[in-house]
UniProtKB/TrEMBL annotation:
GO MF term list: protein-disulfide reductase activity
Superkingdom of this protein's organism: Bacteria
Entry annotated with the keyword Disulfide bond: yes
Keyword Thylakoid: no
Identification of the protein by name: Thioredoxin
GO CC annotation, single: cytoplasm
A single BP term in Gene Ontology: response to stress
Lineage: Bacteria, Pseudomonadati, Pseudomonadota, Gammaproteobacteria, Chromatiales
Family: Belongs to the thioredoxin family.
Domain Thioredoxin: 1-113
Keywords: Disulfide bond, Electron transport, Redox-active center, Transport
Record SUPFAM superfamilies: Thioredoxin-like, TPR-like
PROSITE patterns, per database record: THIOREDOXIN_1, THIOREDOXIN_2
């Protein structure tokens, strides 16, 4: 293998300086391997290629466990290959086995700083104030700088939702990479689109309120009213209606009350006092 400034061999003598101390300056990916390990021989060239491609955003450190058994024992290496990522002097994540390149990229991108993320953050700021053309320009600039940034599809989806391009947003959501399937932002946008769909051809909020006053058992009115509240940010009001719907009519739209509450939890990031309070109330009904 050719020499590289981004790939080094590490021993017990230089592990402290190269890996532990060095990880305060940039992430260090440590590949614990052995010559007899066929998956190790498959993985190592790919890791070296990525180290070159990422251009110094991380250092690849190779540890031959046959020669450095004490190091392997110190870091709990029980199977090969094992790859650990060090940041700020400690191992923060690891994977075992010869993963496909796409999964290794996803592993790295979870931890490595990406300059294009700053552009995407600016794009979100522009969306928040309705400057959609500027947001689109920033997203395209981020794409040109780093076309492999996993956040790009999410930024495009957020822009489509912000501009009210619902059909486009549904298409983008369906095409998100598998790595983003359970991303909190993707879950939040999926929940938001659920309530957008609920309001298709729905009457105004005042009319729905009047219908509920006349007939508290009007499940459709209650659900559509909750959707209105979600989209204008009244999450507590929406959760109260969805909880009441769950109590009264589990059969409505395939348990829409419960599923709607879960969508609101996703919109709120899955945590916080409001989520905890209504999750507990939902559980009391279920069990």
């Amino acid at each position: 293998m050719t020499q590289s400034a981004f790939v080094v061999t590490v021993t017990a003598q230089n592990f402290q300086s190269v890996v532990l101390d060095g990880s305060f300056e940039r992430p260090v990916l440590v590949d614990f391997w052995a010559d007899w390990c066929a998956p190790c021989r498959m993985l190592m060239p790919m890791l070296a290629k990525l180290a070159e491609e990422y251009g110094g955003r991380f250092l690849l450190a190779k540890v031959n466990t046959e020669e450095e058994q004490a190091l392997a024992a110190q870091f709990g290496i029980r199977s090969l290959p094992t790859v650990q990522l060090f940041q700020s002097g400690r191992a923060v994540d690891q994977f075992m086995g010869a993963l496909p390149e796409s999964q290794v990229r996803e592993f790295l991108d979870r931890h490595l700083p990406q300059a294009s993320n700053g552009l995407l953050t600016l794009a979100l700021d522009r969306m928040a104030v309705g400057e959609f053309a500027e947001a689109r320009s920033l997203i395209e600039e981020a794409r040109a700088e780093d076309p492999n940034n996993l956040r790009l599809p999410l930024a495009e989806l957020q822009l489509a939702v912000a501009q009210g391009e619902i059909a486009k947003a549904r298409t983008l959501l369906a095409g998100l990479p598998i790595e983003l399937a359970n991303d909190p932002e993707a879950l939040a946008l999926r929940g938001q689109l659920r309530f957008v769909d609920a309001l298709e051809n729905a009457p105004p909020e005042a009319e729905l309120t009047a219908r509920l006053t006349t007939d508290p058992k009007d499940s459709e009115a209650r659900y559509q009213l909750a959707a209105h509240q979600v989209l204008r940010g009244d999450y507590a009001g929406a959760l109260e209606h969805l909880l009441e719907l769950m109590k009264r009519d589990r059969a409505f739209e395939d348990d829409a009350g419960r599923r709607g509450m879960l969508a609101v939890f996703d919109l709120l990031g899955g945590s916080g006092d409001l989520v905890a309070r209504y999750r507990a109330r939902m559980m009391n009904i279920l069990y």
